[in-house]
User: Fold this.
Amino acid sequence: MQKVAPPLLRFIRFIRLLSHVVSGLLQSIVYPHVPLHIQKKLMQNWATSLLTILNIKLQCHGKLPGIEIPRALLAANHVSWLDVCVLMAACPTRFVAKTEISHWPILGLLCRNVGTLFIERSKRSDTMRINQQISDVLEVSERVTVFPEGTTTNGKQLNHFHASLLQSAITADALLYPVAICYRTAAGSICEEAAYVDSSLIVSLQAILRQTCITSDVTFIEPIQCGMKNRRELARLAEKEIAHTLLLPISHKQTEKPSDLPIG
Assistant:
């Protein structure tokens, strides 16, 4: 039987988390006005502290894109809102998110101040604009992460990868890094409580706080040279590599969605 964190410990974690979010808000005010290397350090330190508060142990595998790689686009599978935190802690990066998140209280302000790129999913034409924004960010040696599944899973399968936002890697002549994310319980099984599926943020947070410990395995897979490949070829290659790494089946769909986004 899986152990559950006692109520007092959960309460202490929650209070510490609230304090940390307030600290993040204050930092985010100055964040856009400091040099890039300081921004990366602020982001990494804040995300690492958040994982510590939630007792999430981050384990990174593979080779992260270093400073010798001028342009790197990360394409990751999507399990939870925690994905953003573990990637910020492992490899400071900007993200693409749906426009609605920018209007959320507190979290919306945080996302806006740290340079999240927002796309209107209801407008297919907005894909061209966001691809150009991603390319511009890659050109100045910042990392960008997209979640090509377009939604989250419970961690036991991989959804079809949509190709639309991978066009930016071709335009910017960037390396495409597939990133495999997995959450495990203290016993080593897949931690479905870490997943964010058909839930609210509050309910998801409560489920995470109940865990005594969660391990997040993040694997940076060998990068894909875009070369003469088209975006659909890149999507299939990234999808295949992540599925192989996580030993997961792929659920394919016939049509592609106009945007590849982290959900709120």
